[in-house]
Amino acid sequence: MSLALYGATYSVYTRIARLALIEKGVAFDLHEVDVFRPGGPPPEHVLRHPFGRIPVLDHDGFRLYETGAIARYIDEGFPGPGLQPQDPKARARMNQIVSIMDAYGFRILVWDVFVERVSGPRQGRAPDEAKIASALPQADRILREIDRLHESGSLTLADLWMAPMLALFRLAPEGADALGHFPRLAAWFDAFQARPSAKATRSPVEG
Ligand SMILES: N[C@@H](CCC(=O)N[C@@H](CS)C(=O)NCC(=O)O)C(=O)O
Asked: DSSP class of residue 78?
């Protein structure tokens, strides 16, 4: 059996797929692809992913992109602890959180706050203060909702979506401050960060 994941250690979505694989105990090889290199994604990667994004999974020639599809395939296609609750209401909550993080979290927490405040300036770009200021009330709304909806207990896909985005958001001082307003969420996040899978997939920017 060969299982390859094309992605990057800096990538939030690659991290989600890696977390799913590690938590299931599935062996895989990570092939680094830099989609942000000058000139755009490598042409061979666009053959794998027509939208030029990461990650892409290749399981014995079965190619899959979109992290939601990848994580559910890993969970359903391999033995190991289940990452999706059987109870319909609990599963619906998990899927709701995954959708919130995809639709709002990635843009607001990662791009509008982390990239503007932390990664852009590290690359010599001045932060767009107006963008950060308008993102913060929306970030508060996201944290409030995931704090309200998330059930701590056995690990699910909701955890795998929340943690990588919060890890970057928290690197911005505004992000650390905002997370501090939600002590239950902050405690869950600290516990998640202590998991071997989280340690093994830490983003290079987390140091
Ligand atoms: N909907 C995609 C999103 C993946 C995504 O946006 N990945 C980022 C890296 S974390 C990427 O490839 N960005 C490249 C770009 O925006 O051009 C998924 O679920 O896999």
From this structure: S
Q: How far is CA 35 from the centre of its chain?
A: 16
Q: Give the residue whose CA is nearest to atom 1 of ligand 1.
A: 66
Respond yes or no on whether the N-terminal peptide bond of residue 50 is cis (omega within 30° of 0): no
What would the pLDDT profile of 144-179 be if each residue is shown by its tens digit? Answer: 999 999 998 999 999 999 999 999 999 999 999 999
Cα 166 to middle of ligand 1, angstroms: 16
Half-sphere exposure of residue 120, counting CA atoms within 13 Å on the CB side? 16
Taking the centre of ligand 1 as the mean of its atom positions, its distance from the CA of residue 85, in whole angstroms, is 26
Assess whether 33 and 113 both reside in one domain: no
Q: Is 100 helix (H, G, I), strand (E, B) or coil?
A: helix
pTM for this model (two decimals): 0.98
Q: What is the pLDDT of residues 104-129, one digit of tens each?
A: 999 999 999 999 999 999 999 999 99
Q: Whose CA is nearest to atom 15 of ligand 1?
A: 53
Q: Is 40 in the same domain as 69?
A: yes
- Of 54, 63, 165, which is best to mutate to test ligand 1, by the most ligand atoms within 8 angstroms of its C-beta? 54
110 located within any domain: yes
Residue nearest to atom 6 of ligand 1 (CA): 53
Domain assignment of residue 37, given as a range: 3-77
Decide: 5 in ligand 1 pocket, CB within 6 A.
no
